[in-house]
């Protein structure tokens, strides 16, 4: 067991290692905590013991410590692929999700940039990806970020205990056979990739594994088409893989606006990505040459295809198994997620849960918000419930998606009277490069109030655009507010403040 304790004031840690000057991808320490608001007089070893050092757990721990609480956080040793014995400070997002995924995205998009450059007169010549060099740099960056999180926690005064933690009772946590008592317990152990129970599934990879491939597969099958599948499908298509999706439904990205779903499917078809609908895997067999034969059901009967890798992108499950929740009396739902109230409190009055372990929104910024709200509630005399309404998000598909609020179908069902503004466009760069990719934008307005209730963007840097418009929607912007804003020209974003004519209108839930 490794235990680290650095007692440094909350004021000092704002300028410590892991600060903005160190370059931490937005991980700089907060200057908001200027004074300790909580006096630690607990009869227990700690005021709060956090299980899990991912986004939510780190935020809850260091903020609580900054307010004056005595805090410990248990996390597994660092590993690129998660397991019962490997994890690491930073959690899924930093080590096996958002960060490495986006690094792969950047790597993959250079292939398209090289092609586009020729349209502008550049003679590039033959280009070649040295995947091993990229992987070496990616791994070094993840190691660095894992260390940054350790510094952030240590400098905030949080004790880091390395090992697997379980809950013995409502005030006791066990790590490596040693018991620790705490006034409060915060469960932030996140989730893990879900694998379908088909014969031969052990030959498939999940979202952890695809980020640790030794080479780019020539033929990649992807089971599922949510965030994870759609993102990796676009990336590996750019990298040169022959990508095929196998999904039970008729479209990708369930839960998104229908036009957005249609647009992405059109774009993926144009890129040569095959989306097989009405299909489910039945069996996977590994051949002597290392290739994989997958038999799957289809509308035309059972079919067998051969691939170099098969990615199971079929969702995530909460890490609640063997955590000791039953012994402590913590309630979970049918899917295994921890049930919490609006303040992240579980069925046990001193045990709380944040992040992907709860059945709310499995997004890193949401976990950060939940962790911050919990710290303020418990140790800053500032009860605050996390607000899960109007949360902007992005899908790093090819092209990117940015979205906030309702999709058209949801908006019509909710408000009845809805004005729809939409536009399909060709990015300026593509008019010369020859790239056929098109963008799409959509604004949904509650006609009775003129309030913007949804914005959807498909195109280059859609996530960057959406962050700013997300603030506007969160503040209750109206269509008149958007119309009154002068656009920045020439940009794609100006389209959202220059659309004046409705594409269609709904009144009483009927299109007119």
UniProtKB/TrEMBL annotation:
Residue pairs linked by disulfide bridges in the UniProt entry: 93-98
Cofactor comment: Binds 1 FAD per subunit.
Top-level division of the source organism's lineage: Eukaryota
SUPFAM superfamilies registered for this protein in UniProt: FAD/NAD(P)-binding domain (SSF51905), FAD/NAD-linked reductases, dimerisation (C-terminal) domain (SSF55424)
Residues annotated as the enzyme's active site: 489
Annotated ranges, domain Pyridine nucleotide-disulphide oxidoreductase dimerisation: 391-499
Binding residues annotated for NAD(+), in chain numbering: 224-231, 315
Family matches, as InterPro entries: FAD/NAD-bd_sf, FAD/NAD-binding_dom, FAD/NAD-linked_Rdtase_dimer_sf, GSHR/TRXR-like, Pyr_nuc-diS_OxRdtase, Pyr_nucl-diS_OxRdtase_dimer, Pyr_OxRdtase_I_AS
Record text on subunit structure and interactions: Homodimer.
Family from the record: Belongs to the class-I pyridine nucleotide-disulfide oxidoreductase family.
Stated name of the protein: glutathione-disulfide reductase
Organism of this sequence: Ulva fasciata
């Amino acid at each position: 067991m490794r235990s680290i304790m650095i007692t440094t004031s909350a004021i000092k840690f704002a300028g410590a290692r892991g600060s903005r000057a160190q370059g931490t991808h937005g991980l700089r320490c907060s200057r908001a905590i200027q004074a300790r608001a909580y006096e630690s007089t607990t009869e227990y070893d700690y005021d709060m013991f956090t299980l899990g050092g991912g986004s939510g757990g780190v935020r809850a721990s260091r903020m609580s410590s900054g307010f004056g609480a005595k805090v410990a956080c248990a996390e597994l040793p660092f590993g690129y692929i998660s397991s019962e014995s490997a994890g690491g400070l930073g959690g899924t997002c930093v080590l096996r999700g958002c960060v490495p995924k986006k690094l792969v995205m950047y790597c993959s998009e250079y292939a398209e940039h090289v092609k586009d450059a020729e349209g502008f007169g550049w003679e590039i010549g033959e280009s070649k990806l040295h995947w091993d060099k990229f992987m070496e740099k990616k791994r070094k960056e993840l190691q660095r970020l894992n260390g940054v999180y350790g510094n952030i926690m240590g400098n905030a005064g949080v004790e880091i205990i390395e090992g697997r933690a379980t809950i013995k009772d409502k005030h006791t946590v066990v790590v490596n056979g040693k018991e620790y008592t705490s006034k409060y317990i915060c469960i932030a152990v996140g989730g893990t990739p879900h694998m379908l129970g088909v014969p031969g599934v052990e030959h498939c990879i999940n979202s952890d594994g695809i980020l640790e491939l030794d080479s780019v597969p020539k033929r990649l099958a992807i089971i599922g088409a949510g965030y994870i599948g759609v993102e990796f499908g676009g990336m590996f298509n750019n990298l040169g893989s022959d990508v095929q999706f196998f999904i039970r439904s008729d479209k990708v990205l369930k839960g998104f606006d229908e036009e957005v779903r249609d647009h992405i499917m059109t774009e993926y078809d144009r890129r040569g990505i095959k989306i097989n609908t009405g299909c489910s895997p039945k069996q996977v067999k590994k051949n002597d040459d290392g290739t994989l034969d997958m038999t799957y059901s289809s509308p035309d009967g059972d079919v067998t295809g051969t691939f170099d890798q098969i990615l199971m992108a079929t969702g995530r499950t909460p890490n609640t198994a063997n955590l000791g929740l039953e012994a402590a009396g913590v309630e979970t739902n049918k899917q295994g997620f921890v049930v919490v109230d609006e303040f992240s409190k579980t069925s046990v009055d001193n045990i709380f849960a944040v992040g992907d372990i709860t059945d709310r929104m499995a997004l890193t910024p949401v976990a950060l918000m939940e962790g911050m709200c919990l710290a303020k509630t418990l140790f800053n005399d500032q009860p605050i419930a996390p607000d899960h309404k109007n949360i902007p998000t992005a899908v790093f598909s090819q092209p990117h998606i940015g979205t906030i609020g309702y999709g058209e179908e949801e908006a019509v069902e909710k408000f009845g009277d809805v004005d729809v503004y939409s536009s399909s466009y060709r990015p300026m760069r593509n008019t010369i490069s020859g790239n056929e990719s098109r963008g799409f934008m959509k604004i949904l307005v509650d006609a009775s109030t003129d309030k913007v209730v949804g914005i959807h963007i498909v195109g280059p840097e859609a996530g960057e655009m959406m962050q700013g418009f997300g603030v506007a929607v969160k503040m209750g912007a109206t269509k008149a507010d958007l119309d009154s804003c002068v656009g920045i020209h020439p940009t794609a974003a100006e389209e959202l403040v220059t659309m004046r004519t409705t594409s269609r209108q709904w009144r009483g839930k009927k299109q007119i």
